[in-house]
């Protein structure tokens, strides 16, 4: 398909370029300015604008004479220059030997940051030393492939422990089948492992979905205060059993704490933070959940008086399957995915999650989401009979 599109584009653009260049044997007029190569014929321009692929036409001086809008959007073209040296090297090689080249390239998305673009590039010669580049952005497709590959690797690794545990417990139950007390004890442990296994699988699925989708498909108006109340309600029994007091401060109810997004995802993210705070706190301590409604952001702070996080661990706690205290995670049924889910939920809502922590003093996680801006009211329609006529 790419080859067919490239051939059609090359034919149209090549024809347009040829029409704009002097014919063979034509002599330049003395004193006349050089005939411009740009713009291309209207038909060629329409084709370039209609295609979703990135199209770039280079002249003999290595200048961009025409490009599709997507070329600028991806940062491949700046003014009349190619933004990446590797693309320019391909153009010069094709101009030199006239051979079509098809390559895969990984280039920087922009001048800042470390984000990369994965590109399929086809470079073909045109008339008069002009060169055509046809580029397909495969970044999203490759990202999905990587996530699926990581999913398989992570699942195979993380499921080993609970599956092995269930196997051993089943064997122990079989050996102790005549001891009803032992069977009852092993059955209880199997139930715990089964619950942990089910939660692990569900969180892997949820996280994979969040990583593939960059935004919320059908955002609705979400009351963050309600999400915070639901998150605390889910963990109230666990906190009570551990002797931990959970308090909420929801702020002025007259100030709307609303964002656009998915209420279930936001509640899940806040629940994960509260659960972490409870799990990493000792008895007779407090966990507080505070909601601040601002003009630009709605913030939720989850503060605990727990063990705290060492500075060396702060950059890693949002990684998938990272457990700062593996033994505690096993006791509490943690999967190592909770904070990774929080991070991606915030990102998919255009927000962020940050953390402050001091070993021995506790931690504060802060979620910030863009406030839903009010829609200006539509002015009422005044019937013609009520309108005042100015003489």
TrEMBL record:
A Pfam family annotated for this chain is: HATPase_c
Indicate the segments forming the Histidine kinase domain, all copies.
154-373
Q: Where does it reside?
A: Cell membrane
Source taxon at top rank: Bacteria
- Catalyzed reactions per annotation: ATP + protein L-histidine = ADP + protein N-phospho-L-histidine
What biological-process GO terms show up in the record?
A: cellular response to phosphate starvation
SUPFAM superfamilies attached here?
ATPase domain of HSP90 chaperone/DNA topoisomerase II/histidine kinase, Homodimeric domain of signal transducing histidine kinase
Q: Which residue ranges have biased composition labelled Pro residues?
A: 373-382
Question: Which PROSITE patterns does the record match to this protein?
Answer: HIS_KIN (PS50109)
UniProtKB keywords: ATP-binding, Cell membrane, Kinase, Membrane, Nucleotide-binding, Phosphoprotein, Transferase, Two-component regulatory system
GO CC annotations, alphabetized: plasma membrane
Region annotation (Disordered) maps to 368-391
**Protein's UniProt name:** Sensor-like histidine kinase SenX3
Source organism of this protein record? Flexivirga endophytica
Q: What is the lineage of its organism?
A: Bacteria, Bacillati, Actinomycetota, Actinomycetes, Micrococcales
